Every structure is written in C-alpha cells, then in structure tokens.
Amino acid sequence: MEVLETYRYPQFKLPVVYAAKFKGVTNAATVRSRIVNAASMESPEGEIEREAVNFAFINAKLVTSPIHLQTAIYQALLSESQGLLRTKTIHSEIIWALNPTNNITEAIRRYGVSDTSTDLIIVRVATSDYPGVLQDMRDVVEGELDSLANISETTDWSSVRKHYKLNAEPAVKDAVGDASKERVAIDNIVVSSVAMKSVMA
Questions:
Q1: Entry pTM
Q2: Of 19, 57, 178, 184, which sits most exposed with the smallest number of CB within 10 A?
C-alpha cells in the first residue's frame, strides 16, 4: 500500500509535492497549537519550529477524492507561479483552494486542522526531492498512515454537500438513493469548483 504520494510539476519552481493521509489522529490539538505558536515565535528556535510544521494540514473528511486534493494543489502552485497567492503561504493556499468561498478564515477553520480532527491529509510542497518528508510528517502527527486512495471512505459527504450547497443541485438530486452515483456527482462538482475558483475569485 502506497502511503506517501509524490506529485511532480516540472513546469513550476516548486516542482515536487508530497501528500500522506493519517487516520486515528490523537494529537490534533497539539498540532494546531504548534502551528499557531510557530507563527509568532522569534529567535532560531522559531525558525526550527516553523520548518517542523511547514505543511498543509487538511481535514481529510472534507476531501472527496485524490483528484480533489490534486486540483487544489495545482491551483495553489499556479497562483504562486503567477505571484497571485491570496494567503501567506503555498500550504495555506491549498487549504483556501479547497473551500468553496473566498473567505480565508473560514477555509482554515473548515479545511485546516482543528482540535478534534481525527483524519488529516498532510501536504508538503518542495523545491526538490525531500527523502525525509514522511518521517518529518510522522514526527508531527500521531496517527496511522492510510492510503490516499481510500480517502472517500472517510469523507463526510453530508458536510461536503452543505458547504458546497449541493442539496438542490440537479445531478445530486437525480442520484438520491444511489450512494455511489451521488458521491461521483458530488466529487465531479467539487473538483470543477476548485478548478474554476482562481478564475472566479
């Protein structure tokens, strides 16, 4: 089972992206606290801590498929390459891209790590190959590694429908009663929404 995904985008100056999914996470509150504290720490210790948590920590329950995640990553890389980041870092831009609205605070609250998160996707955007990335992820997150291919098994589909306001969407309504068909319809809509977001923003 492949637990660390590597995506390569040679057209960008940040050409390598790593992603891994953790389930049964037990230290989400600590992770969130470390992220918040690292942002304001000064001195060399602050730099070390910022590097230690230099990832996108994503609420896996709101990601519908690997393509959903990859589309958000691509859109963030595209924005960065054009000098059009709407957030402070490439990692927070990925989280922003996943959220259906342009509200950055809302995006971090919904799609970032919360004190009660149990399923997280960790993403690291890098300038070159990063052999120790999986161990660095494990050093921060306490949980069991799981294949990203299994992401839809932990997706909170009702919350995705709510955030994207899909309950009245014809394709979703037509699929009511057929869970598999409904999930495909939802995934198609949210992936398209992420792909179009930077154009519409």
A1: 0.95
A2: 178
